[in-house]
């Protein structure tokens, strides 16, 4: 099972935005125990390449986020990233991902941007910031673009995750609602596991037609 398949099966990935992470492997393990196996560590965290290398030891699916350049894409993949995430359209990142056989989730918001991301070979399209238009935006986008794999990011939490999925999202991004900055700072991995479990339960049962991607 590759990184994208894991995300589609779990219907979720976790993005970690923190000024520092003391034990990325323990963090990834905590999220996995809570039911979220795909973990995105971002280039906004200092020393992310070393964190990627260490997190890979947890056996989770580790990706790199906020990837802006081809150089960052290469370095992240060399450090063990199994998927890449961009905040917007980044053709150079898409080129590296394609050349290395790594799925990339590219950021977009409008129909034009979604089509451009798909043309660039994005395995899925991250709709960011999802809070800007809410779940109904996904139904609107999928009307003319039924084959798009859309993943909301930004403002997704346990109270609305199921609504995004009901409106056609193939997965949702769990942010600070699950990976609390305070819990990361305190290395409170049990709290993060509990938050992940609550988030996963909030998504509801997997539809029978979507048990396999």
Automatic annotation (TrEMBL):
Pathway(s) this gene product operates in, as recorded in its UniProt entry: Carbohydrate acid metabolism
| Top-level taxon of origin | Bacteria
User: Does Coiled coil count among this protein's keywords?
Assistant: no
| Keyword Lyase attached | yes
Its quaternary organisation is: Homotrimer.
**Which protein family is it in?**
Belongs to the KHG/KDPG aldolase family.
The entry's protein name is: Bifunctional 4-hydroxy-2-oxoglutarate aldolase/2-dehydro-3-deoxy-phosphogluconate aldolase
The scientific name of the source species is Rhodococcus sovatensis
């Amino acid at each position: 099972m590759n990184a994208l398949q894991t995300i589609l099966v779990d219907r979720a990935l976790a993005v970690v935005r923190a000024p520092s992470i003391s034990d990325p492997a323990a963090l990834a393990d905590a999220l996995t125990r809570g039911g979220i196996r795909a973990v995105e560590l971002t280039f906004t965290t200092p020393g992310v390449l070393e964190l990627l290398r260490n997190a890979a030891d947890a056996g989770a699916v580790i990706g790199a986020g906020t990837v802006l350049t081809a150089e960052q894409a290469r370095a992240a993949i060399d450090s063990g990233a199994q998927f890449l995430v961009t905040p917007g359209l980044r053709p150079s990142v898409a080129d590296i991902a394609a050349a290395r056989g790594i799925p990339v989730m590219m950021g977009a918001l409008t129909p034009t941007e979604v089509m451009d991301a798909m043309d660039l070979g994005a395995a899925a399209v991250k709709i960011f910031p999802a809070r800007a238009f809410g779940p109904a935006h996904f139904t609107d986008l999928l009307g003319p673009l039924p084959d798009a794999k859309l993943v909301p990011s930004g403002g997704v939490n346990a109270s609305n995750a199921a609504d995004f999925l009901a409106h056609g999202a193939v997965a949702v991004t769990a942010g600070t609602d699950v990976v609390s900055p305070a819990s990361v700072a305190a290395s409170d991995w049990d709290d993060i596991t509990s938050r992940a479990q609550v988030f996963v339960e909030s998504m509801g049962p997997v539809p029978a037609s979507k048990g396999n991607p």
